[in-house]
Structures are given as structure tokens and as C-alpha cells.
Predict the 3D structure of the following.
Amino acid sequence: MDHFGRIDVVVNNAGYGLIGAIEEVTDEEIRSQMETNFFGALDVIRVVLPHFRKQKSGHFLNISSIAGFRGSAGAGLYNATKFGLEGISEALAKEVAPLGIHVTIVEPGPFRTDFGGRSVRVTKKVIEEYIPSAGGMRSYYEQAHGNQAGDPAKAAQAMIQVVESQTPTLRLPLGPMTLKAMQEKMTHVQRDIEQWRDIAMNSSFPE
């Protein structure tokens, strides 16, 4: 604000991954993950909102992940932070739309950044019974770092395109893996809805 006099776009990009089964993570690991990925982004949003509100414009790009849309064994705490960020983002988008402010949830899959390197932590504790489920996530990150299909430069261009759009989207999925995972989850949700529709419809007090 001191240098430019205004802020037009905020990219909430700070974050890291935490890999391990939910029973394996420590209290310290949980709180550190939440402080960075969720509270860090929320703090930035709350600091910038008065400026956006005053100028009646602005755009938040909140960097989530496919992990913010779909839970995975071995990434439960990371999922929690990104699910939380997506919930805040959806609510914020509705609150600020009348003020001329936009919110976009960016949901990348695997991109060739340093996320698989110094930006991911693995729990020290390993419980043998979880190796067949959560252990797969550990193996994935050991093999995937540096080989991810996603091009960060193209992701950045996509974000610029959203910001410059007259009708910016709430969600910006990036990468074929993200699209596939989203479609699979929506199919599963729809299946559950149909299977349990009668019970859902009959859970109210009689009229």
C-alpha cells in the first residue's frame, strides 16, 4: 500500500504438505500445519479486506489443491487445511460479491514446484497397520518430486487469465488429474444421494 497506493490481487500461496496417517501425526505437527495453510491465509485475507472494501475492487486467489476437494489416505491433515480454506473462500465470495470483490479457489494437481521437496513434511511416527493405506502417499511423494506433469508457468498464466476475466470463476481446477478426481468425487456423491434419498427426505418432523 505504501509503494503502490492500492492492492488489486492477493495470491495466498504459502503452504506445505504434511504426509502421514491421522493417528501418526503429533499435536505439534497438526497445529503447525493449520497455522501455515489455514490461519496464515485467513490472516492475510483479513488484513487486506479493508483495503479491497474501501476501493470496491480486488481479487483473492486462494491456492488450495485437489486435496481441498477430495480426501486422501495419508494426507488427512493437509486435506483439513485445504478443505477449511475452500469453505472460507466460498463464504467470503458470497459476502464480498456485492462489494465488487472476487474470490477464486485455485485447485492444482501435481505441478513441478518444490512442493514435493522442501515444502512437504512426513510424520516421524509410522504405524505398521497404516502402511497399506497411508503409506502409499509417502511412496508417491518420494517418486513424484521433479516428475510432476503440471507446468507452473501455465498455472500462473491461467490465474492471470481468471483475474483479467469479466466473469472470474469461483473454482479454477488445474491439471488433468484434478479434473478426473473432481469428476470421480461428484459421481460418488451423486450415487450416495440417490442411494439414501428416501432416508434424507424422511428425516424431518411430520408436517
Notes: The first helix runs from residue 27 to 55. The chain has six helices and six strands. The chain has one domain: 9-175. The mean pLDDT is 90.
